[in-house]
């Protein structure tokens, strides 16, 4: 670790990402004094952590690790209630709180009486998150919490974390070696190089658009341009509303493609002027909610080259043509 | 009184409670004392020593080396040596047996603590356990299955070894075997063996029960994997 200095803003997710040996886990453990820094200071709400007794400090900071680190000899409910017990809460109150949290992280309360071995890896990791949140600490440290589970479970755990964070607004420092995870979860991402030097600290979209140097560029990997689009809004995308036709429409149209829509306004398929008898597949996105990446992806799924804008209920609100997408992409490229 | 030698049951009934020191009942009580006390002592000695060895690794090699030597010493000469210190008392049998037990239990404590997964220990630290509380609430409970397995071995071997003490006049039920030297009469030998086996089985069953009560998660694990 060499001269590393950064700030994790209150209520945001700061991700530390880098190759192995970059000291990201070490940095994390310095925050709760599992490792003491030889030099320098770490401030928590302006108070140097070096001045706080380690067990007391740690009870006020949630911690989630890779294999969840659950206590195999304790039932799930007692695992979650670990820190409340340490803080001397009344047993009943601690357990009630634990049951609340199990539900909060999306676990069946029936699992409360089981032992960790009886749960899947993904479930154990959720318990790990619930345990870290049990005493409602303002700060959460997460050390590669999702890297030991399979990709599908990982995605759902990531989504769950973002959902939880939108409700709880914790100050989270999250360590990972997976740049995609960093970009997905981080409000800000700190890329570290070997030796614990900070290569770049920026919002994900800035990181993708303007990598500070070759190391960061290489670490970000392929498809940087496409991945950047996930931070470009579709709110301003120009939509056409004159390209739809009701089901059973058999008239002529000057347009090469028409979107056939059912009685409730939901898309059915694209009708090409060349082969009016067949319906071709379509892709949708929700303007404002989904990113340009999703809009572009939707266009690429259809031979029409257009993507269908729908509202939250799946009703068509318009069509983004290739022209409209081109225009938006050109704007995005400009910065 | 019949003509020939008494049957097994007759002999047992007549000698169960004669009021003398060598009644079967008294021998049985002595046997239980001389085996249970060393088991408890062994645990009391082995826990702190095992913890010390797990904590300061350099202690483990010399300690386990020494304990292996102790374990290799034949019991009879050790009992005889002890007479010069403790006389012809139960202590003469109890002390060496406690050492034998400790020799088995110290490695069990160390292995048990080694078996605590590192991520579990780390997460206990990160949750804010103090070192003592971590030991009592996390590490020792997780070491318990291995320690209890060692304790079962110690219990059965102590119960059986006590009888050797009969050669110095303190052998509990072993006293029933030495009589057979003087007088080739089988019932005491059979009663002695049967009671010792029964004691060993009961002790083992109690420890298995303790295992189930103290470490319910172990069965939970076996149930799923």
TrEMBL record, chain A:
Keyword line: ATP-binding, Nucleotide-binding, Transport
Q: PROSITE patterns attached here?
A: ABC_TRANSPORTER_1 (PS00211), ABC_TRANSPORTER_2 (PS50893)
The Enzyme Commission number assigned here is: 7.6.2.9
Check the record and name the InterPro entries matching this protein: AAA+_ATPase (IPR003593), ABC_transporter-like_ATP-bd (IPR003439), ABC_transporter-like_CS (IPR017871), P-loop_NTPase (IPR027417)
For the protein in the UniProt heading, the enzyme class is: translocase
Q: Which residue intervals define the domain ABC transporter in the entry?
A: 1-220
Q: Which Pfam families does its entry note? A: ABC_tran
Question: GO molecular function terms here?
Answer: ABC-type quaternary ammonium compound transporting activity; ATP binding; ATP hydrolysis activity
Q: Which family does it belong to?
A: Belongs to the ABC transporter superfamily.
PANTHER family assigned to the protein according to its UniProt record, in alphabetical order: OSMOPROTECTANT IMPORT ATP-BINDING PROTEIN OSMV
Q: What name goes with this protein?
A: ABC-type quaternary amine transporter
Instruction: Give the organism the record lists.
Output: Nonomuraea maritima
Q: What is the lineage of its organism?
A: Bacteria, Bacillati, Actinomycetota, Actinomycetes, Streptosporangiales
From TrEMBL, chain B:
Tell me one GO biological process term: transmembrane transport
Q: Where are the transmembrane segments?
A: 32-54, 66-87, 93-113, 142-169, 189-210
Entry's Pfam families?
BPD_transp_1
Q: Which domain of life is it from?
A: Bacteria
Where does it reside?
Answer: Cell membrane; Membrane
Per UniProt, the keywords (alphabetical) are:
Membrane, Transmembrane, Transmembrane helix, Transport
- Alphabetical list of PROSITE patterns matching this protein: ABC_TM1
Does the record's keyword annotation contain Transmembrane helix?
Answer: yes
Mitochondrion as a keyword of this entry, yes or no, is no
Database matches in InterPro entries: ABC_transp_perm/SBD, MetI-like, MetI-like_sf
Q: Which residues form the ABC transmembrane type-1 domain?
A: 28-208
Its placement in the membrane is given as: Multi-pass membrane protein
Q: According to its record, what are the GO cellular component terms?
A: plasma membrane
Which family would the database say this protein is a member of? Belongs to the binding-protein-dependent transport system permease family.
- The name this protein goes by in its record: Osmoprotectant transport system permease protein
Lineage, broadest ranks: Bacteria, Bacillati, Actinomycetota, Actinomycetes, Streptosporangiales
